[in-house]
Design goal:
Length: about 425
């Protein structure tokens, strides 16, 4: 048994855990991060695009030195059918500040860099070890057990990701339900910088974020994504677990289907696959957030279900960073009072409730209900496809009134009452 006792042990070296550790070490606290991957980032998966505002508070100017890929300057949202696609593309053109920018990112590089920054400020990093259980003294968490080795701390910060078995083991969160999580499946494909600029209409360090509904998940709840990195693209799908088996296409096959779509295949043609990964994503939104503290323990990031998927954007990384920072703030306060009880650590819950994490997640509380509507992934892309086909196809026959054609197409697929219901759910979600 180790004699050493830390001020804090952080389980998980993802963005939540590393941020908490970085902030605590800066406050001169003794912090240990235990990460089961061989290095931080080796097991982490994101789409992904990071919004910088929360990390900018922790490490002002970080984007100048961090291994970020490209600055997102173009947004593309697409509705896809088996052969067709309706793209909406947007480029703001307005200048960004360090707080409003967002970048594409590869976690294997980014988290590794972040872990090095943590070490520079004095965090002790222990990769390659899994924490198996939490140690209790009465009703207080006092340490962790990793492969039979026990380590102790005033507080344990759980930053162990979406499937936090540790938070479950102490009753802070229930087992995940299939409708609350999606599986993300992703490939990184190397193409070269010039090829990316040419194929996506980009220049220099500009990047594109693309989110797609419809065919990639064969009408299941979820969607496809594509992000341009410096010389590669990240392409993947996210598919809700409760829909698995609804169609006869497996999740890895959905990714192949997406890659082979006539509008996507030319974009990635000739690329070299560099990385393949799969990971769960919390999708339950605000109502999935568990209690965030107990005696000697706090829950952060994905372990606390801090993710929103709005179809046109996915956010989890900025929440993970903010929750790590707020957890550190609560621990610093607890240390000053030498009180790591649940009553003292409840301050973390208050901080989260007063932060953008709660405001934003509450705002979109009903969004998961909207995403449960399969019409969005089936009928909407199909209707968009036939309408655009009608709009642009000239065949010498008598033109049809577009509004009448649209009404006919909608009526073929749904009733007026169902359409109204969908509109109401959408208004409620937004
Ligand atoms: C396919 C996909 C696409 C996404 N796209 C985006 C996006 O574009 N933008 C965005 O902001 N968010 C996106 N997200 C969400 C985002 O990636 C997460 O919200 C974010 O990574 C959460 O960070 P975290 O630190 O809480 O958890 P994680 O990054 O999952 O880190 C948890 C860490 O804990 C470690 N760990 C787990 N258990 C143990 C244990 N018992 N002992 C030791 N270590 C342990 C893991 O190895 C891991 O390193 C996406 C997620 C997925 C899967």
């Amino acid at each position: 048994m180790s004699e050493e006792k830390f001020d804090a042990i952080v389980v998980g070296g993802g963005l939540a855990g590393l941020t908490a550790a970085y902030c605590l070490a800066q406050a001169e606290m003794e912090v240990l991060v235990i990460e089961r991957g061989t290095f931080c980032g080796s097991k982490n998966v994101t789409g992904g695009r990071i919004y910088t505002h929360s990390l900018e508070k922790v490490m002002p100017g970080f984007a100048e030195e961090a291994p970020l890929e490209r600055k997102v300057t173009k947004e593309r949202v697409a509705l896809m059918t088996e052969k067709g696609v309706v793209n909406i593309e947007y480029a703001s053109g307005k200048p960004d500040t360090p707080e409003t920018a967002s970048y594409t990112v590869l976690r294997s590089k980014f988290d590794k860099w972040f872990a090095e920054k943590c070490e520079e400020v004095g965090v002790m990093m222990v990769p390659g070890i899994r924490v198996d259980s939490l140690i209790k003294d009465g009703d207080k968490i006092v340490g962790i057990d990793a492969g039979g080795e026990e380590m102790y701390a005033d507080v344990v910060i759980l930053a162990d990701g979406v499937n936090s078995l540790l938070a479950q083991s102490i009753g802070l969160k229930p087992e995940l339900k299939p409708e609350q999580v999606a599986v993300g499946c992703k490939e990184v494909i190397q193409l070269g910088e010039d090829v990316i600029n040419q194929r996506f209409g980009l220049e220099g360090n500009d990047g594109l974020s693309m989110l797609v509904a419809g065919d990639p998940t064969v009408g299941n709840i979820g969607g496809g994504f594509l992000y341009t990195n410096k010389d590669s693209v990240s392409i993947g799908i996210v598919a809700t677990c409760s829909d698995i088996g609804r169609v006869d296409v497996s999740i890895p096959d959905m990714l192949e289907r997406f890659k082979n779509h006539p509008s996507i295949e030319p974009l990635i043609k000739g690329g070299l696959p560099l990385e393949y990964s799969a990971h769960l994503v919390p999708e339950g939104g605000f109502d999935m957030i568990p209690k965030l503290y107990d005696n000697g323990v706090l829950v952060t990031g994905d372990a606390a279900a801090f993710v929103i998927n709005l179809g046109y954007t996915v956010r989890g990384m900025d929440f993970a960073v903010e929750s790590g920072r707020l957890a550190a703030e609560a621990v610093i306060r607890a240390k000053a009072a030498d009180d790591f009880s649940a009553a003292s650590l409840a301050y973390y819950q208050k901080l989260v409730e007063n932060s953008f994490i709660y405001t934003d997640m509450k705002q979109y509380r009903n969004f998961p209900k909207l995403l449960e509507r399969h019409e969005i992934f089936n009928d909407v892309p199909e209707i968009a496809d036939v309408l655009f086909d009608r709009l642009f196809r000239v065949d010498g026959k008598k033109p049809v009134s577009l509004p009448m054609f649209a009404i006919d197409e909608i009526a073929k697929r749904t009733s007026a009452s169902k359409l109204l219901e969908l509109v109401m759910v959408a208004l409620d979600a937004l």
